[in-house]
Amino acid sequence: MWINTNYLILLQVTGSVFISCAIVCPVSIDMVFLLDGSSSIGSNDFIKLKDFIIKVVQYFRVSSQESRIGVVRYSDNASIELSFTDLQIISSIEKKIRNIPYLGGNTYTNTGLDKSLILFTANGRGHVHRVVIVINDGKSSKGEAAIQSAKKLKDNGIRILSLGFGTSFSLLELQQIATSADHAHTYPNAVSMLNSATSVGEAVCAASRGTQLYFTSISEKAFMINHVITNHHVTDDLECAFKCLTNKRCFSFNYFESTQMCQLNYSNKQSDPHAIIDDEKSIHYDMVFPLR
């Protein structure tokens, strides 16, 4: 037996970010959306961008104790439209987002990034992953200032996902703002971005899962039901752990020693404690997400 309740195993993997499984993310996150309200967006696309944010939010378990959502609208200046201290339930968040006014103006992305840092500094949580999603359709009016503002966020351990749509954005700028080049994504138009909302939610969830992960045994006599992704025949639970680590959809696994069966799960005990079932011949392992 390679893994037991007395030890933690640290493994490192790399891989693509995007996954495809329309299930609520089991990771708790503080997440801020930067909503471009500049003149180039237009009122119709501005509505689509708000719909996009709402659709991404629906992928997460939102509450004051789990994932929390903030929204900053930016153009000539930036304003906090939704704070972490506001009521964190989906219906309230959706109402606030739909009521965000479209004002037009320039694209001072740096002001939005600076305002998001204020949000995290004032009310962010140190024990969860923190993410900023930047949305725009063109180059920042002050590109270098935006890159420097993004650096302040990244220096504080906050991940940035950059999303650009249309034909006027600067891919290089998006990549420089993002945590890394593969955290910058582009779309031909606002409709395409809206249709990709679930994939973006999955990407944020997978990125927050991270590349350095621990497994700890929740119980030596239990397994998880209702969230199984795949089954594998393995030699031991260490091999099962590797299979989970290399699958971006995996957040825990079951190991059945008598049959050497490995089940990968897209959930964990924190997200669905009622899915843990007692069984004498199984072991359930959850991931632990060390903050970076």
List the defining traits of the structure above:
6-stranded mixed sheet; 14 strands; alpha/beta; elongated; single chain; about 30% helix; 8 helices; membrane; 6-stranded antiparallel sheet; about 290 residues
Write out the strand line-up for the largest beta sheet, numbering strands in chain order. 1-8-14-11-12-10
Q: What is the rounded distance between the termini?
A: 30 Å
H/E element sequence? EEHEEHHEHEHEHHEEEHEEEE
Q: Can you give the helix content as a percent range?
A: 25-40%
> How many H/I helical runs?
8
Describe the main β-sheet briefly.
Answer: 6 strands, antiparallel
Would you give an account of this structure?
With 292 residues, the chain is α/β, with parallel strands linked by helices. Helix content is 30%, strand content 29%. It is built from eight helices and 14 strands. The protein has helices spanning 43-57, 90-98, 109-123, 143-155, 171-177, 190-195, 197-209, 237-245; strands at 9-12, 29-36, 68-74, 78-82, 129-138, 159-168, 184-187, 212-219, 222-224, 228-233, 252-256, 261-265, 276-278, 282-288. It has a six-stranded antiparallel sheet with strand order 1-8-14-11-12-10, covered by helices on one side. It has a six-stranded mixed sheet with strand order 4-3-2-5-6-7, sandwiched between helices. Strands 9-13 form a two-stranded antiparallel sheet. α1 runs antiparallel to α2 (90-98), α1 (43-57) packs across α7 and α3 runs parallel beside α4 (143-155). The chain is elongated and about 65 Å long.
